Amino acid sequence: MIGAVALTAALTGAYVGTTASVSSVAAAADLGAYLVITEPGNTQAAKDAVAKDGVVAYSYDKIGVIVARSADSGFAAKIKAVDGVQQVGKSRTAATAGLRGVAPKPKPPKPMLEQPQSITGASAETVEWDMKAIHADQAWAKTTGSADVVTGILDTGIDDTHEDLSANFDASKSVSCAGGVPNTTPGIWRPDSSEHGTHVAGTVAAAKNGKGVIGVAPGTKVAAVKVSEGTGSFFYAENVVCGFVWAADHKFKVTNNSYYVDPWLYLCSDDPDQKAIAEAVRRAAEYAHDGGVVNVAAAGNASTDLAAATRSDSSSPNDSTATSRPNLPKSCLSVPTELPDVVTVSSTTSTGAKSSFSNFGLNVVDVAAPGSNIKSTLPGNQYGSLSGTSMASPHVAGVVALLASTHPGASPDELVKLLYTQATDWSCSKGGGSTCTGPDANNGYFGEGLTDALKAVS
């Protein structure tokens, strides 16, 4: 999982054409990035007001989220006073490339920005330990999944030219959401520098082609939804909003979300900026869910009990100067993983224990999957091993893709129920720690249990 602590054309659906091109937004001096929240479907008055003191970069009318830019320091107060506007908040705390032409402060080294180990080139295909642990190798004997099922990889981009991904890559449904504006220029979805998204994609659907590795659902498709920006891989809220809406409007069955929304590790409702960020992403994720998408997310890599009464953060905001935020209440959420209707995934080792880095929490973690030393695809026809809940989450996304293949008429809620029912109960005693609470069938380390690909196709 990456974030601060780890690593004018009108469109259909919820998208509405921009009132300013990307280039014109980038050229304006000293622009701040804002989210303007209104009642869904009632955005016009707010857009008119924004246009007087800034620009509407994009508007997601169906969910009432406007992506705005302004150089006016009083912009938020002015727009908040407009009839029908419910919230206004800044989505970032520092200038970024495309706003003032100045890159944000690089993120510090962190366990959520996993570094590959043992990088190799093309090789004969092997069945890795993680696929055996969730019985994916046995599932493939029954089915490798349906090509009609598409998983959206909301991440740093995908190298779609990779020998193990190209056959299963859907370019027609791929996009870059940088700046909160969908861009389908061919190849724009490829990574700037991070291998993260390519690695995640391989775990979901690397082809069963005699080369390299095999994904959980090698007969299904993946699409790149690039929601990060620049070499710092910042996952800003407007980008994530774009990604979730895109997923629904393009009929994805699953999204994988191995990140948290920058620049705040936890979003607190007593801060107007953080409140607006959380609400915008919540609406977008809900829109995706209601549109038929199962959203799967990494639990995070801070070894934190997300069920505890308090949590602390010393890494935010990660795009400027971080401050210490001790003893935050549990209501300050990690987004998207703690949003409603999001499947939260913890990480396990090859021995079945909870990975030491994995977040946990009773009634927060929903299901577990392998996430330590996971070999998968890297850009440039390479392969390498990464560790993190970022690596656990796509195993579950792949199992959901298999479930969607074998249950083509099932709703997101029905697919999630099957996912939980079919998971193998994994007791606290297997966890390797003393902080696990709850019974075998649903506990703080493993949730409903270890995900099982074979049961998904049986």
The largest sheet, given as strand count, sense and whether it forms a barrel, is: 7 strands, parallel
Uncertain parts: 4-29, 96-104, 108-113
Identify the overall geometry.
Answer: globular
CATH topology term of the largest domain = Rossmann fold
Structural class: alpha/beta
* CATH top-level class of the largest domain: Alpha Beta
Biggest sheet strand line-up? 8-9-7-10-11-14-15
Helix content: 10-25%
Q: How far is the first residue's CA from the last residue's CA?
A: 30 Å
Q: Which value, in Å, is the CA radius of gyration?
A: 21 Å
Share of residues in strands: 15-25%
Say how many strands there are.
Answer: 17
Q: Could you say what the CATH architecture of the largest domain is?
A: 3-Layer(aba) Sandwich
Average pLDDT confidence is 90
